[in-house]
Each structure stands twice: as structure tokens, then as C-alpha cells.
């Protein structure tokens, strides 16, 4: 079964208070994007690795090329548009499956990705890495109104792994309908298709705010040594 990876990396990272997009911040000797691509390039089953970037991104071409499978595509306004543009970029020779992974998650564990791919292909349905919510969750604005039962709550991580056609159709439909789509699974749910939850390590954090950087730097150093 052919598999292509898509790495949405066209965000501006406004919550990071940094001038370049957050994936170009250096951590443990490399940019966040290089760490992420180095992880994906360990997966020999990927036919190609499409990185969705803003057209005005001047940094990507300066990165050392780690892998011949890495190609650049144009991102879009929102993350879902970036993923859809990458799917359309693959349309002339589409893979059976796509593995979508945030540029901002360099800590992902390779065995978790392999398990996601194996379990989904075996079950013949798409799925995502996710981790059970550990904290007590409150609903409210200025005051807690309610404690939400957490026994069936999961935190959605990436990669997210779906069949090419199913994801393309779901994203096109969901975007056209104006639904709120913050990950690939939300488009698949919108389309009424199953999303398998595959438990992954909770240290696969998405680097979003400045306080995430120290933790990610520490964990990357630990993984390298
Ligand atoms: O902003 P957030 O942290 O949710 O972004 C998740 C990922 O989606 C990041 O890797 C970011 O670069 C990417 N993204 C994108 N296109 C956008 C917005 C975000 O590829 N328009």
C-alpha cells in the first residue's frame, strides 16, 4: 500500500511571539522542522514527504536536504487548506494512504507512528495517535461551571492517517460547508466515517507557546543522547 506524508508547516506561529515561523526556531542543534523531518525520514514505507509552506517562506530552501523524498507544496489560509493543497499536489499520482504530521511536533515516537500505520491498515480504517486526558477538565469562562467527565476524553495528536480519497473528499466537503476543522479527524467525523484512536506517548507535544520550547528542548536532548 503506497503512503505519502504531509507536513503542514505554513502557519505563522502567532502564539510564539517570535519573528520567523515557529518551525524555524533552533532546539538541540537543529530547527524544529528539521527535527520533525528527520523523524519522518526514518520511515522507509513513505513514498514522498510533502511539506506545505507559505509561498513567502524564505527559510525552507536554506535547510540542508536530509532526504530526497522531501518536496515543497503551497500551504493555505488555515491548516485544513494547507493539507488539502498538499493532497491536490499529490493528485496526479495519488498514494493509497496519507500520514499527516504537524511540523510543530518534533518529539513524535517512531514506534508509535509504525503502530498507527499497522493498526489502521490491518483494520482498513483511518485513525490518529491520541492520548487519554489526564487533567480534570472544567467548562466555563471566568468561573468553573462544570467538571467534564474525562473517562472518554482523548487529546488528538498527530500523525493522523487516512485513505487519500476519503480525506480529500471529507476536507473538501467540510470546508465547503463551513464546519470547524482543526485536524484531519474532524473532517472525517464530519463525513460520518470512523476514526480509530491509537494510544500514543503524551510527550508528543505540539510546540505552540514559548513555555513549550524549554520542555521540547529538554526532551529532544534526551532523545538524542
Ligand atoms: O497553529 P497550529 O499550532 O495549530 O498549527 C499546527 C500546524 O499546522 C503547524 O505545523 C502549522 O505550521 C500548520 N499550519 C499550516 N497552515 C496554516 C496554519 C497552520 O500548515 N494556514
From TrEMBL:
Pathways per UniProt: Isoprenoid biosynthesis; isopentenyl diphosphate biosynthesis via DXP pathway; isopentenyl diphosphate from 1-deoxy-D-xylulose 5-phosphate: step 2/6
Entry EC number(s): 2.7.7.60
Function noted in UniProt: Catalyzes the formation of 4-diphosphocytidyl-2-C-methyl-D-erythritol from CTP and 2-C-methyl-D-erythritol 4-phosphate (MEP).
Catalyses which reaction(s): 2-C-methyl-D-erythritol 4-phosphate + CTP + H(+) = 4-CDP-2-C-methyl-D-erythritol + diphosphate
Positions MEP for the nucleophilic attack, annotated site positions: 150, 206
Enzyme's top EC category: transferase
PROSITE patterns for the chain: ISPD (PS01295)
Organism of derivation: Pseudoalteromonas arctica
Keyword tags: Isoprene biosynthesis, Nucleotidyltransferase, Transferase
Matches recorded under HAMAP family: IspD (MF_00108)
Protein name: 2-C-methyl-D-erythritol 4-phosphate cytidylyltransferase
A Gene Ontology molecular function term of the record: 2-C-methyl-D-erythritol 4-phosphate cytidylyltransferase activity
Family in the record: Belongs to the IspD/TarI cytidylyltransferase family. IspD subfamily.
Amino acid at each position: 500500500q503506497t503512503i505519502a506524508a504531509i507536513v503542514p508547516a505554513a502557519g505563522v506561529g502567532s502564539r510564539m511571539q517570535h519573528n520567523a515561523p515557529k518551525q524555524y526556531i533552533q532546539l538541540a542543534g537543529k530547527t524544529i522542522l528539521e527535527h520533525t523531518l528527520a523523524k519522518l525520514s526514518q520511515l522507509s514505507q513513505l513514498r514522498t514527504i510533502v511539506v506545505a509552506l507559505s509561498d513567502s517562506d524564505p527559510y525552507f530552501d536554506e535547510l540542508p536536504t536530509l532526504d530526497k523524498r522531501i518536496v515543497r507544496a503551497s500551504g493555505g489560509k488555515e491548516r485544513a487548506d494547507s493539507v488539502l493543497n498538499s493532497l491536490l499536489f499529490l493528485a496526479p499520482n495519488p498514494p493509497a494512504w496519507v500520514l499527516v504530521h504537524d511540523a510543530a511536533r518534533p518529539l513524535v515516537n517512531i514506534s508509535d507512528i509504525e503502530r498507527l500505520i499497522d493498526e489502521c491498515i490491518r483494520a482498513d480504517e483511518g485513525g490518529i495517535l491520541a492520548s487519554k486526558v489526564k487533567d480534570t477538565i472544567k467548562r466555563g469562562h471566568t468561573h468553573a461551571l462544570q467538571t467534564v467527565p474525562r473517562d472518554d476524553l482523548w487529546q488528538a495528536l498527530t500523525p493522523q492517517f487516512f485513505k487519500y480519497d476519503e480525506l480529500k473528499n471529507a476536507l473538501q466537503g467540510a470546508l465547503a460547508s463551513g464546519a470547524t476543522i482543526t485536524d484531519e479527524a474532524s473532517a472525517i467525523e464530519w463525513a460520518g466515517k470512523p476514526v480509530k484512536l491509537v494510544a500514543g506517548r503524551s510527550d508528543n507535544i505540539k510546540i505552540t507557546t514559548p513555555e513549550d520550547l524549554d520542555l521540547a528542548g529538554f526532551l529532544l536532548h534526551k532523545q538524542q543522547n
